[in-house]
Amino acid sequence: MLKTKTALVTGSTSGIGLAVARALAREGANVVLNGLGDAAEIETARAAIETEFGVEALYDPADMTKPEQIAAMVAAAEKRFGAVDILVNNAGVQHVAPVDEFPDAAWDRVIAINLSAVFHATKAALPGMKRKGWGRVVNTGSAHALVASPYKSAYVAAKHGVAGFTKSLALEVAQAGITANTICPGYVWTPLVEAQIPDTMKARGLTEEQVKKDVLLAAQPTKQFVTVEQVAAFVTFLCSDAAANITGASLPIDGGWTAA
């Protein structure tokens, strides 16, 4: 479905981003990975994509807090492949604290990576998409792009900002063959989420099952984690011609979290 296309997925060395990159590669797209992690593990993931799907996969270590590195990453991808046809802005970080105790540096970092990086990467990739008359921008929001939780002010502000930015972008490029959408996952089962469970069990005196259902999934009526494969399949659909008239949308994948 995506042969001849190139996808750049930020925050794609693990979790949702890696699943998305693999799903797009499965459909024939060359991919550019980006993110943090162990160098050997990243290389293994990159090489596996090439071996399994017969596409070309590159890795770029651009720091999402550095606009000049983001622009250079897009330029390098365009030099190698001709254009970035699909941009998935997925990189994200979290910090939890009350507003009056929220460290300034933590606020700046959350906004930089979760919101400003979306702008910088999109700005860099957009001219190439316009030249080709085809493009897909998929931004990873969160249920927190639609609703709020306490102690996550920077994250909620950034994700609401992503949803608004995406709507504005969609209107600008509505007649250019380019779509822009925000996906809004609830709690997704990833290694990072799994790693939180033992400490939460100990701190709250709960069983593993209680932590999952009564803490992590308290807001999700299905009481089921979203899987990275489900998110990746949704992104792949949004990149297809079948989704050509889905644009400017904030689309929940949250087990009913935002239905109430």
From TrEMBL:
Residues 5-192 form the Ketoreductase domain. It is an enzyme of class 1 (oxidoreductase). Keywords: Oxidoreductase. InterPro entries: 3-OHbutyrate_DH (IPR011294), KR_dom (IPR057326), NAD(P)-bd_dom_sf (IPR036291), Sc_DH/Rdtase_CS (IPR020904), SDR (IPR050259), SDR_fam (IPR002347). It holds the Pfam family adh_short. It comes from the Bacteria. One of its GO terms (molecular function) is 3-hydroxybutyrate dehydrogenase activity. Its EC number is 1.1.1.30. The keyword Protein biosynthesis does not apply. SUPFAM superfamilies: NAD(P)-binding Rossmann-fold domains. Belongs to the short-chain dehydrogenases/reductases (SDR) family. This is 3-hydroxybutyrate dehydrogenase. It comes from Methylopila musalis.
